[in-house]
Structures are given as C-alpha cells and as structure tokens.
Amino acid sequence: MSDDIDAIDATDDHVYLSLAEGHDDGAARWAFGTGFEDPLHGVDTAVPDGVDTAELAAMCLALGDDALVCAQRLAQWCTRAPELEEEVALANIGLDLLGQARLLYARCGQVDGTGRGEDAYAYTRDPDDFRNTRLAELPDTDFAFCVVRLLVLSSWRLALFGRLASAADPVLAAVAAKGVAELTYHRQYAADWALRLGDGTEESHRRMRAALAAVAPYLGEVLDARPQFAAHADAVRQETLAVLDQVLLAAGLDLPAAAAVPGSGRRGEHTEHLAPLLAELQSVARAHPEAAW
Amino acid sequence: MVTAPSLRTARQVAAQVPDPELPMLTLADLGVLRDVRLTPDGTVVASLTPTYSGCPAMAEMRADVAARLRRAGFEKVEIRTVLDPPWSTDLITPHGRRTLREYGISPPGPAPRRTAGPVPLVLGAPRRAVGCPRCGSTDTEETSRFSATACKSLWRCRACREPFEHVKEL
C-alpha cells in the first residue's frame, strides 16, 4: 500500500475490465437488461411520512412509461432521420428519457410494494399494464409528426417536472429537478424545428398542419392526465397550452379543434400501436428470460 | 503490521479516476465526485452524481472508483449515488475547463439560472458566443445541439474551418 497516487495508474485498463472487477460477488449478470446496476443504488430511499405511496407509485409508473415508450419511438429514427445531426439529436433525447424512465421505475418498485427492479417494468409487463399517454405510442408518420409530438410531450413534461421538483418525495423531486434541464433542451429542439418547418416551404407547412391534426385528438388526454397528475393538472395544462400557442403563432400554425379519441392510456386503454412496439422492445428479454453472461 | 490507508489517500485515489467518456478529465475535474469519507469501521464511502439521467457511463464510473479504491488497499468500499442537487456544468473545475480546451473541446459557459416559475422558451434567440478551442475565434456556428455524448454539442469554426465539440451548459 502506498500513499503515492502516481503508483496507481489512472489510464491503463479499459473501463469494462474495472466494471467486471467491481462486480466481485461472482454473480452473473442478466444479459439483456441493465441488470448490473440499480439506478438508485446508494440513494436514501425512505418515503417521508404523509406521502401516499400508491399515488407516488402511480405517478412514477405513468411518467416512466411515457419516457420509455417515447424513447423507443425516438430510437426508431436511427438510420432514418433526415440528417445525421437529427438522428444524433433524437437518439440523445431518447437516451435522456430512458434514463428518466430507469430512475422512475426503480422508485416505483421501491414504493409499490412489489420490490420489482426497473427491468421487470420495462420487459415483462403487457400493453394493458402500461400507463403511458397514447400520444407517446403513435407511430411516426414523418419527421413533422415527430416534431409535433415531441413539442407537446416535452412541453407538458417540463411544466409538470418543474412542479414535481418540489414534491414531498425526495427521490421523485430529485429526478424531476434533474429532468428539468434535460427537458428544456428537448423542448427547445422541438420548438426550433416547429418554427423552421411551419414557417418553411409549402410542403413543410402542409406536413406540420397534418401532424397537428393527427396529434390534436390525443392532446386532451395528455393535458387531463387524471388520475395520476390531478394535483398539478390545471397549472400544467395552462403552461403547456401557453407554450404551444407561443410556438405555433410564431410558426404560422394553429392547433385544430378535434374530438378526443375515446379511452385513456392512463387507464391502460391503448391504441393498436403499443403492442407491436412493446413486442419489439421486449422480444429478446422474453425469449431468454433470466439469461445471464 | 499493515497501517490503514488514510482518508487523504482515498480522496486522492477517487479524485484521479478518469471519466469514461471524457478520459482527459478526472471525476473530480468534472464535478461528478461529490464526497469521499471514511466511516469509523474503515469503510470508504464515495458519493457520485450522474451528469445526465441517462448517462450510460455511471455504472462504469462507480465500478472504476470502487476497483481503484480496493487496489489502493481499502477493503470496504461503498459508492453512493447523489441526485440532489443535480449536476451542473458549473461544477467543472477551472483545471477541468483548461484540460478540455487543450484537448480541442470547448468548455461550457455559465449554466442557465433556474428561477421560480415556468422555464421560459426563447424562439430564434441568438446562440451564445462560443470560442473555437483551436484558433480562439468567436466566429463559430452551432451545427447541432446534440453530439456523440449527451453532454456535448457540435460546432464549426468559420475562421479556421475546423469542427469542434462544445460541452453544453446544463
């Protein structure tokens, strides 16, 4: 043992070697999930008195499902985006959301009484167990749809996270506070593109109008968000609509009135598009349950 | 007789661990290493904070810190995750900023201040002036807000024509 820190080589070994070395309990890792790491490892996870754990779990689950399903849709743009820079941007946004989903699922498992880990939520639930808003699961018909969906969902999520940053549960509050900075970048990206496309060519404007018409029937469900987000619904709705107004006015667009599609993803009632999305996301994990390496 | 390694050593060892994605920086340079302490029973407790929620390097950082502390003679090592307060680029040390520039990566400016109430959305705002890390010119343009890692954006210098990465303010 030496006090001389120079004796410890800071650069020689590959990070994955130390990852294996750090895993010294000899247990194999599950091959397909994140397995080796609890994203809330070492965080103080006590629930304060007075916090309703069922409500907290429901909120974490819905927000985690929104993030996971959005991340999967964004990842589907890889190799298909209009430019390499946009592919990188969409993948980065998806990665942020995936990270938020992991933290929220981990918190959910701690407070819903099941003790499940993040992978159990992502890989072993069926479509009707998911509580994401249906807007998140709709397939991308073109880049304009991707932009409009991202604008709506990031604006809503940012408005909500800004309020959840002072939630009574310290873990949810910390996840939300961290997410605010990330979501600010996501919303800016979507807003910049909405402006560019809406105020762009005749064709880009037409596509933005079509995307808004496709999104509008699902907007009410996003903004309503009962039962999981009742406490903040009004303030979050106002803030979200104000942002949408600001962007659409500048882009020369408007939000068409539309009748809501019956049902609600928040109650587990989904479109036919969620099942194939989850089938792809879960296929390897379900084909080889508990597989380890 | 083996003497117990000191807290000072533990701090030095943990502080020298390189970041997996920006290996020219240490975790201390990056502000990811929040705290190192020694409990009465001799356990080293190191606290790390993730840069982004989805930072895929977190598991590696944690394993790397633990492995290096063990190699330095600490038998009991515990790594804690700290989420609050969230990481900000303001935590990157002056040494870390100089190192980034030396490696051709533009360091971040001051992080946006979080004020009470809604986060304002500014449309069509002029981008902040970012200096080229190679030639120093501020005649630069952002080509993408996102880059190969979550923490960077892509830029191009109009003066020396070189592309470069900029650690974006968070």
Automatic annotation (TrEMBL), chain A:
- Annotated signal peptide: none
Q: What class of enzyme is it?
A: oxidoreductase
Supply the name of the protein.
Answer: Phenylacetyl-CoA 1,2-epoxidase, structural subunit
GO MF: phenylacetyl-CoA 1,2-epoxidase activity
Instruction: Please indicate which superkingdom the organism of origin belongs to.
Output: Bacteria
Per the record, the GO terms for biological process are: phenylacetate catabolic process
E.C. number, please? 1.14.13.149
Automatic annotation (TrEMBL), chain B:
Location of the PaaD zinc beta ribbon domain? 123-168
Matching Gene3D superfamilies, A to Z? Fe-S cluster assembly (FSCA)
- What is the superkingdom listed in this entry's lineage? Bacteria
**Limits of the MIP18 family-like domain:** 15-78
InterPro entries in UniProt = Fe-S_Maturation_MIP18 (IPR052339), FSCA_dom_sf (IPR034904), MIP18-like (IPR002744), PaaD-like (IPR011883), Zn_ribbon_PaaD (IPR056572)
Residues in coiled coil: none
What PANTHER family does its record include? 1,2-PHENYLACETYL-COA EPOXIDASE, SUBUNIT D-RELATED, FE-S PROTEIN MATURATION AUXILIARY FACTOR YITW
The protein in question is named: Phenylacetate degradation protein
Which organism is this entry from? Actinacidiphila cocklensis
